[in-house]
């Protein structure tokens, strides 16, 4: 008689043989279920206010496609972001308040998201999603701050805070400089639709951060022609401060965004992906001009209601019943945990989240989550919002239910609430703000996992008589280079000891060619010479519907091979200067790029 061990072994094998088809079927079903996880598309617009939607009562424009997301899904009535661009993007990406991630400004490195922060792109990529971002990034340009290092395997757009021309401008595709194709929101949408079609049989996460209606106020004729003579019937609270042409241009840009949103929704319908795709729409801050915004106080840059209240629309037919209106307060910090929860994937990381999942509200599991206080910050100013009250950055208290325009300070009427919120703000400031602007992070040059590093004028520090082409650094270049004492420096850290191919992006008239240019870092030096004249005109203004105030014009800068330089791993100050200047100026300077020679 066989031993007990032999009989057990025979039973196991015979059982596996008999039930193998069932096990296989169950396994296949599990895989199929995994394949049915929802796709995700997130639309984020730039400088569009809560009031710039017909869904929210604005009769000056029509946004049927964006409105449909809320009508066929859920609409959040009190959703809050940050007063400006890069902090909101950081909070969306991480589910955490932006000071935790080191974001304190919108340019010159202060927009970068700390490298120990885990992003929504990394969360979904780790879960097997095909991830992509198309548009304005604004949380770091050099790898590993770059979107390709933050979970987005596909990236097309510009990483700066804003751009000087929206018609076929210079862009980048996965670290390669390219020329855009037409109006940027249209171009980004085309790329996104192509990606969706290519990945239709896989799970995809697509982030579409449009750069409009941020200035410069540019929009194709098709939309401008319908607005340029249109009467604006709903006006800003202080109508004397409203520039009607800026309003017309902004609303025309929003209608273009609506058309592009509609194209994506139509693509989902065509591919039969509508039911299994989560679609999200929100904005990054309040409106960028004085225009109708529902009577709220504040606009972009303000921590008052009008500066930080954004629409949030979420459609997911499989799980969210259409027409749901959610009045409980929520914020950009909630989007990562909410989308991960809806997709059934883990958000486990090294950092605790400030946000929470809104899935119970979206699915009707509960009418209300536990009350909390949301904080909004910019430039040291902090406001706090509960379901009923807002404490503004001066310490005044407003009943937002009875007084949504913040016209009456009720702190004397509700002294305990005012005291509690002031204490909460003090605690929040003490915990998150100390040392925020003491930024000692160098700009990375060279990384083991990436081939290319840009060092734009935006991130450089000018010395001597150098001037930026405009006060807003994002799209600027350096000009007025008329002395050998002038130079540009960057604090950098080289990640990989290697030989690097260096390109200089410049313009220089014929009369001034011949300057010797030196790039140096620690003991390494590279010297080249400008020998080809290139003096194109500044461009961008020809597309403006309203004369710009703060965005730099652009130029078709020439990329010149400066040569190769060996850089050792480590920190130092990288310097760009001229060793000789035979003409009246050295050049106008846009950017240096470094490419590891071994990876060319």
Work out the radius of gyration: 26 Å
Helix count from the secondary structure assignment? 11
Gross morphology is globular
User: What is the strand tally?
Assistant: 27
The CATH architecture term of the largest domain is 3-Layer(aba) Sandwich
Average of pLDDT: 93
Multimeric status of the protein: single chain
- CATH homologous superfamily classification of the largest domain: Alkaline Phosphatase, subunit A
How does this model look, in words?
With 600 residues, the protein is an alpha+beta fold. It folds into three domains: 1-35; 38-206 and 256-367, Alkaline Phosphatase, subunit A; 443-599, Galactose-binding domain-like (Jelly Rolls, Sandwich), CATH 2.60.120. The protein is built from eleven helices and 27 strands. It has helices at residues 4-35, 64-71, 85-94, 120-126, 184-198, 221-227, 244-270, 305-308, 335-343, 359-362, 415-432; strands at 39-45, 74-80, 130-136, 154-158, 170-173, 176-179, 204-209, 277-283, 309-315, 324-326, 330-331, 374-378, 381-385, 389-391, 397-399, 443-445, 452-456, 461-463, 467-468, 478-479, 487-494, 498-507, 516-521, 524-529, 558-567, 570-580, 588-596. The strands form five sheets. Strands 1, 2, 3, 4, 5, 6, 7, 8, 9, 10 and 11 form an eleven-stranded mixed β-sheet that branches. A hairpin with a 3-residue loop joins strand 13 (381-385) and strand 14 (389-391). Helix 5 packs parallel to helix 7 (244-270) and helix 6 (221-227) crosses helix 7. It is globular. The protein starts with a helix and ends with a strand. Residues 1-35 have low confidence and may be disordered.
């Amino acid at each position: 008689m066989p031993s007990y061990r032999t009989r057990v072994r025979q039973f196991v094998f015979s059982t596996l043989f008999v039930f193998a088809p069932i096990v296989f079927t169950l396994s296949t079903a599990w895989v199929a279920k995994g394949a049915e996880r929802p796709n995700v598309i997130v639309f984020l617009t730039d400088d569009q206010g809560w009031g710039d939607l017909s869904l929210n009562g604005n009769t000056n424009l029509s946004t049927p496609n964006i409105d449909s997301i809320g009508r066929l899904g859920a609409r959040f009535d009190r959703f809050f972001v940050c007063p400006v661009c890069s902090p909101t993007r950081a909070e969306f990406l991480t589910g955490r308040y932006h000071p935790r991630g080191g974001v304190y400004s919108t340019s010159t490195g202060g927009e970068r998201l700390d490298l120990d922060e885990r992003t929504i792109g990394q969360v979904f990529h780790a879960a097997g999603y095909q991830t992509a971002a198309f548009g304005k990034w604004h949380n770091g340009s050099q790898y590993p701050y770059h979107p390709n290092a933050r979970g987005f395997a596909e990236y097309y757009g510009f990483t700066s805070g804003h751009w000087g021309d929206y018609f076929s401008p210079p862009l980048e595709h996965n670290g390669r400089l390219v020329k855009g194709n037409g109006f940027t929101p249209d171009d980004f949408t085309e790329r996104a639709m192509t990606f969706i079609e290519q990945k239709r049989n896989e799970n995809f996460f697509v982030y579409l951060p449009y750069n409009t209606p941020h200035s410069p106020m540019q929009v194709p004729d098709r939309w401008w022609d319908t607005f340029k003579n249109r009467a604006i019937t709903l006006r800003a609270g202080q109508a004397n401060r409203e520039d009607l042409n800026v309003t017309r241009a902004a609303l025309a840009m929003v209608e273009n965004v609506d058309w592009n949103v509609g194209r994506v929704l139509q693509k989902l319908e065509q591919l039969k992906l509508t039911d299994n795709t989560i679609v999200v729409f929100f904005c990054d801050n309040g409106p960028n001009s004085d225009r109708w915004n529902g009577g709220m106080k504040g606009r972009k840059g303000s921590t008052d209601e009008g500066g930080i209240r954004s629409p949030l629309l979420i459609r997911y037919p499989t799980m969210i019943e259409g027409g749901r209106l959610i009045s409980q307060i929520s914020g950009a910090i909630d989007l990562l945990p909410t989308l991960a929860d809806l997709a059934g994937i883990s958000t486990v990381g090294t950092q605790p989240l400030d946000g929470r999942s809104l899935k119970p509200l979206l699915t009707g599991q509960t009418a209300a989550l536990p009350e909390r206080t949301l904080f909004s910050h910019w430039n040291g100013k902090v406001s706090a919002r509960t379901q009923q009250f807002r404490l503004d950055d001066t310490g005044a208290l407003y009943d937002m239910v009875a007084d949504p325009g913040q016209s009456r300070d009720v702190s004397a009427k509700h002294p305990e609430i005012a005291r509690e919120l002031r204490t909460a703000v003090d605690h929040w400031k003490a915990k998150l703000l100390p040392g925020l602007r003491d930024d000692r992070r160098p700009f990375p040059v060279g990384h083991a996992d990436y081939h290319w590093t840009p060092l734009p004028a935006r991130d450089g520090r000018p010395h001597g008589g150098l001037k930026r082409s405009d006060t807003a650094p994002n799209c600027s270049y350096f000009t007025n280079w008329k002395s050998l004492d002038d130079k540009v420096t960057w604090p950098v850290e080289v990640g990989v000891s290697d030989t690097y191919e260096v390109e200089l992006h410049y313009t220089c008239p014929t009369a001034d060619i011949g300057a010797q240019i030196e790039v140096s870092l620690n003991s390494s030096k590279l010297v080249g010479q400008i020998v080809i004249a290139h003096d194109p005109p500044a461009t961008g203004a020809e597309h403006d519907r309203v004369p710009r105030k703060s965005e730099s014009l652009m130029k078709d800068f020439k990329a010149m091979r400066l040569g190769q330089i060996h850089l050792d791993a480590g920190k130092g100050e990288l310097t760009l200067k001229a060793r000789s200047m035979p003409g009246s100026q050295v050049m106008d300077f846009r950017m240096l790029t470094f490419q590891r020679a071994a990876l060319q």
